[in-house]
Amino acid sequence: MKHITSPLLYLAFVAACLFGSPAVAQTTPADHLDNKTLLVFGDSYVKNHREPFENTWHYKVAQRHNMRYINYGRNGSSIAFDRTRDGFGPSMLTRLSEIQMSADYVIVIAGHNDAGLIKDSADSLAIFRDAMENLCARLIDKFPQARIAFVTPWNVNRTGFHQVINTIVEVCGEWSIPVLRADLESGIHVRSEDFRQRYFQNGDTAHLNNDGHNLILNWADKFITGL
């Protein structure tokens, strides 16, 4: 056994034997999202249709990380097409100029309504691609310091959705903008009627209810945290 010659060290050794070693202070890493601003821009996936936006996964992510939250969603909004005559207002490309707030994180969730309008029209799909190119460029110009990302629509089994989702992924890839693949990786089985009745508002193919938002909360949180 090693001899302890210092009286102070000896007293410390005795105290440790009698009372155990002093507790080491536990520290947790600072949350890098704390007090940052999250702006979510899009259609009724963002607005949350007939339910409060406080039920959405993106609002809950912001609350979890003490982020400032801005919801810029509009029911019926389209990335590329003006829907003013239908009561849904101008395209998101036009609406972007109305946003005067700054943000640290900008999440774009849209494309569902574009898919319904494009269907199988090659000309409309070309208009959508041009709008996506323009939107990505303007987002980067408008929010030069922000982390920008897109979220695809669900994997709805209707003409136009596959084309729109592929275009979002391809164009965002050209601009090095991350994409959250809600169509493939979310666990949202939009093609299952039983699933929709449980997790969607009125069983539709677009709008999650509170349980649906909770279902993907951790998955989406991981994506935003990793941006």
Describe the protein in words.
This protein has 227 residues and is an alpha/beta fold. It has 9 helices and 5 strands, in the order H-E-H-H-E-H-E-H-H-E-H-E-H-H. The protein has helices spanning 7-19, 44-47, 57-64, 92-95, 112-118, 122-142, 161-174, 193-199, 210-225, and strands at 37-42, 68-73, 105-109, 147-151, 179-180. A 5-stranded parallel beta sheet has the order 2-1-3-4-5. It is globular.
Q: Which descriptors would you attach to this protein?
A:
single chain, 227 residues, alpha/beta, 5-stranded parallel sheet, 9 helices, disordered N terminus
SSE topology sketch:
Blueprint: H1 7-19, E1 37-42, H2 44-47, H3 57-64, E2 68-73, H4 92-95, E3 105-109, H5 112-118, H6 122-142, E4 147-151, H7 161-174, E5 179-180, H8 193-199, H9 210-225
Parallel strand pairs: 1-2, 1-3, 3-4, 4-5
